[in-house]
Amino acid sequence: MNFICATCGTQFEDSGDAPPEHCPICEDPRQYVGSGGQRWTTMDKLRKNHHNEFRRHEDRLIGVGSAPDFAIAQRALLVLSPAGNVLWDCITLLDEFTETTINGLGGIKAIAISHPHYYSALADWSSAFDAPVYLHAGDRQSVMRSSNSIVHWEGDELELHDGMRLVNTGGHFEGSAVLHVPFLAGGRGALLTGDTIQVIPDRNYVSFMYSYPNLIPLPARSVERIADSTGRLEYDRIYGAWWDRVIPTGAKDVVARSAQRYVKAISS
User: Fold this and answer.
1) All residues at 6 or more sequence positions from 79 whose CB lies less than 8 Å from its CB, including other chains
2) Domain residues for 250?
3) Model pTM above 0.90
């Protein structure tokens, strides 16, 4: 049976009738094991008390998220492209309704994931849609369920199709990445950031952290690398990891001044 960590949503290799002894993703300093200890579930159990919702962010971008919230509670983003749809980040729950709805939208040509906290049930999603999964090689060790569909890309950038490209920023994880989609935001471009670049309540700024739940900051050089690697891209909008975490316009300037503010604060 492929058990799923109820805290981070990661699906593991088949371990028979007993769950794994521990979750390396949650035991990492960037995540946590809850006060009640390690908890496990399965895809069948999730299907009984959760469902997925689809919400359109704009003409060619649709969010897919589970209700009620599960684990970290991120939502995935389905980028609609004539050359093939791309699923950005992943959620754990996959059911018949989700498969039918996505296939009705043209299916999935490629899955790309920002960092290990959102690897979730990538093997099931890849198998259901016959799609490769692009993960940066810097986080290879964080894959808890292997799949022949995984492509461990290397370097600073990876071109997909229709002008979309993955950019390795580092920071939150060594392999942390964002997806640049030039045709979103009315052709002004958008960054899909997961929590590599974190959209915060004050939409005039974003933030960057080694660990969000444990409040561990990044060093100045890591923040500067994130700013530099995204500064050469043309974009006006950012979509973060949750439904309402969106900077609708002026996002490139927001990232630049946020990096400056962050570096100044931790260097004081």
Assistant:
1) 60, 61, 85, 86, 87, 88, 164, 179, 181, 184, 192
2) 4-267
3) yes
